[in-house]
Automatic annotation (TrEMBL):
Keywords: Coiled coil, DNA-binding, Transcription, Transcription regulation. PROSITE patterns: HTH_GNTR. The keyword DNA-binding applies. Residues 1-73 form the HTH gntR-type domain. One of its GO terms (molecular function) is DNA-binding transcription factor activity. This is FCD domain-containing protein. InterPro entries: GntR_C, TF_FadR/GntR_C, Tscrpt_reg_HTH_GntR, WH-like_DNA-bd_sf, WH_DNA-bd_sf.
Length: 241
């Protein structure tokens, strides 16, 4: 095991033991290096890895906000990893789309079945913002992401919410590029708005099966239009990005 990996293992163990909590600062590089009996560059490398994974946030300087602070951004590390594997060609975009369909179908079903029912005020507010006149393409897509993540959050499963946010972040550039290729974005946006309302209505009504079918059709339709459709029946793949 390399030195920085030993540092990672020790910090992981301390986090699991409750030595540090979200929002607390880790000891400085020098203190960590002395405590773990390693070099400061090894500590620095370990902290860079943790920051990429969304475990800590680092800030340079000598003020109260300097150093490494424990944060809770699991989607950051996941999104970065998936995005890099997409760029290298190791992961097809269609596989990410397929996973998104599976997760969101489950999430809206779980949200519809929850007792007591969760609040959908945030999801409703996001749809109202998407309906506002003058919303541009990029803002629409940002609101769209926030809406779908809000539905995932309503399922009550924190990991599903984090994975959803990570996946959306990973394929964001592909989605934007595909959307710009559409012949009539305004017509597509109107359809998406109506489909969003239908999904939210089904979830609010507790119609789990209807909500799952609606969100799957919604996602598949959008990616089909943008050329990023998932595998069809029998495993045949659509065009790759």
């Amino acid at each position: 095991m390399r030195t920085h990996e030993r540092v990672l293992a020790r910090i992981e163990a301390d986090l699991a033991a409750g030595r540090w909590a979200v929002g607390e600062r880790l000891p400085g590089e020098r203190a960590l290096a002395e405590e773990l009996e390693v070099s400061r560059p090894s500590v620095r490398e370990a902290l860079r890895v943790l920051e990429a994974m969304g475990i800590v946030r680092t800030a340079v300087g000598s003020g109260p906000d300097s150093g490494a602070t424990v944060v809770d951004h699991p989607a950051a590390g996941l999104g970065s990893a998936v995005r890099l594997h997409l760029a290298s060609g190791a992961l097809p975009v269609q596989d990410v789309v397929e996973l998104r369909v599976l997760l969101e179908t489950w999430a809206v079903g779980a949200a519809a079945r929850r007792t007591p029912a969760p609040s959908f005020d945030q999801a409703e507010a996001l749809l109202d913002q998407m309906d506002a006149p003058g919303v541009g393409l990029e803002e629409f897509l940002e609101l769209d992401t926030a809406f779908h993540v809000a539905l995932a959050a309503a399922s009550g499963n924190v990991l599903v919410e984090a994975v959803m946010l990570g996946l959306r972040g990973a394929i964001g550039a592909y989605v934007t590029e595909g959307t710009r290729r559409l012949d009539d974005w305004q017509a597509t946006a109107e359809r998406l708005r109506a489909e969003h309302r239908e999904v939210l209505r089904a979830v609010r009504d507790g119609a789990a099966s209807e909500a799952g079918s609606a969100v799957a059709a919604h996602i598949d339709g959008f990616y089909r239009d943008t050329g990023l459709e998932r595998r069809g029946p029998g495993g045949a793949e659509g065009p790759r990005a």
